[in-house]
Fold this sequence. Notes:
Number of helices: 10
Structural class: alpha/beta
Helix content: 25-40%
Strand order of the largest sheet: 6-7-8-3-9-10
Mean pLDDT: 94
Order of helices and strands: EEEHEEHEHHHHEHEHEEHH
Largest sheet: 6 strands, mixed
CATH superfamily of the largest domain: P-loop containing nucleotide triphosphate hydrolases
CATH architecture of the largest domain: 3-Layer(aba) Sandwich
CATH topology of the largest domain: Rossmann fold
Number of domains: 2
Low-confidence stretches: none
Number of strands: 10
Radius of gyration: 17 Å
Amino acid sequence: MLSVRGLDLFYGDAQALSQVSLEVPKGEIVAIVGANGAGKSSLIRAISGIEPASAGEVLFMGKPIGKLAPHEICDLGIGQVAEGRQVFPTLTVEENLEMGGLLPRARASARDRMAEVYRMFPQLAQRRRQLAGTLSGGEQQMLAIGRCLMGNPELIMFDEPSLGLAPLVVQEVLHAIRALNEKGMTVLLVEQNVAVSLKISAHAYVLENGGIAMSGRGSELLHDDRVRQAYLGL
């Protein structure tokens, strides 16, 4: 569904990504793991069109999208749940969801999708008139996921969904990601929690210093001695 080929990205003179290539097959969870500063978020920003790559290409459904604006990429069916949630704090829960449904591809089904979001996250239905800025961190993450779903995506990129959340809430968020995948959603998961990411992913890539250091099935990398020593402290 998504192919990244030889991607380079610079911030001024500093290189954030170097010859990054990866594949995200339809219907799978693919994880990108690595330490802080490895280039994980830069990769998400390059795929979504927020940061222009200096070399390489990104293909979605076989078509190049590297020259498109972020809103055009969203309207093709690539959704993003950003790091730090980034909900609109002065809007209500329902208004946040309505914002997610403004994409042309999503407008006709907005009402049905909102009902689906409320079924998936009953807490949001109970707080639909509450300002998003007053929600807990976990509820805001649920809202960020729900707002993304309102755009009717075919692939969702999650950027550090567990960041700053209590362990119990992390499990709820990861359960939601697995549930979406079981319904057919393709997922690109960028996550600092290496063990959790590898457990739920079909395939994974290890990003180090802006480049792909290793790749393989999630279960295989979870038991790889190099990964266990570098990221799991084992």
